[in-house]
């Protein structure tokens, strides 16, 4: 094998983004925390004897958690946890940085999930209004179990009382972008979780 193909333990590159005033969590920190969380999930679900025909259903909440779900699914694979994927879409933000408080379900699961082990996979919980809505909606489908895993928990923003079963990283109050999370549908592709510069949500995009 040539040197070029050998993985190295070199420090990750510093990535700068024009629209961000601060990198809050790097992709490398996310991977480390997600790997740890996957280990915990694997240990907790051993009691259910998960198999291909009795897998853990990861319910990816679109659009924000598509990258997190992809990484979590592969870390769970490393731990020998069989998963199946379903996609749901709920919206409460529109193109603002504050929740509208009203949740709309835009896409439901495709397969029946009755008697299945379900895990809602969310990118971020702030007021918790969205997650509370999704939990109630899915509980009504009578799953065998229902848990939540959330990449970023902003406990200071809670408007309803809700405990996340697997919070991966806790962050302070800030509007973040990257690693799947957007502002007005932009910036999902950033590798890291970053704080959006104020002028980017206070001015129309055409003025930037
Ligand atoms: P909540 O209902 O206030 O908990 O908000 C949940 C949803 O709002 C998340 O699934 C995200 O889509 C979005 N959201 C909350 N905070 C942020 C943020 O800081 N950046 C981007 N999206 C966010």
From TrEMBL:
Q: What would be one Pfam family of this protein?
A: Pribosyltran
Please tell me whether the keyword Glycosyltransferase is annotated for this protein: yes
Where is the protein situated, by its record's location annotation?
Cytoplasm
Q: Which UniProt keywords apply?
A: Cytoplasm, Glycosyltransferase, Magnesium, Metal-binding, Nucleotide-binding, Purine salvage, Transferase
Cofactor(s) named in the record: Mg(2+)
Highest taxon, organism lineage: Eukaryota
The processes (GO biological process) annotated in the record are:
GMP salvage; guanine salvage; hypoxanthine metabolic process; IMP salvage; purine ribonucleoside salvage
Pathway participation = Purine metabolism; IMP biosynthesis via salvage pathway; IMP from hypoxanthine: step 1/1
The enzyme class is transferase
Gene Ontology molecular functions: hypoxanthine phosphoribosyltransferase activity; magnesium ion binding; nucleotide binding
- SUPFAM superfamilies of this UniProt entry? PRTase-like
* Stored Gene3D superfamilies: 3.40.50.2020
| Catalytic function, reaction form | IMP + diphosphate = hypoxanthine + 5-phospho-alpha-D-ribose 1-diphosphate
Kindly indicate where the leader peptide sits in this chain. none
EC annotation? 2.4.2.8
For the Phosphoribosyltransferase domain, which residue ranges apply?
A: 35-183
Q: Does the keyword Ribonucleoprotein apply?
A: no
Cite a GO CC annotation.
cytosol
Q: What does this protein do?
A: Converts guanine to guanosine monophosphate, and hypoxanthine to inosine monophosphate. Transfers the 5-phosphoribosyl group from 5-phosphoribosylpyrophosphate onto the purine. Plays a central role in the generation of purine nucleotides through the purine salvage pathway.
**Family indicated by similarity:** Belongs to the purine/pyrimidine phosphoribosyltransferase family.
Name of this chain's protein: Hypoxanthine phosphoribosyltransferase
Q: State the organism named in the record.
A: Leptomonas pyrrhocoris
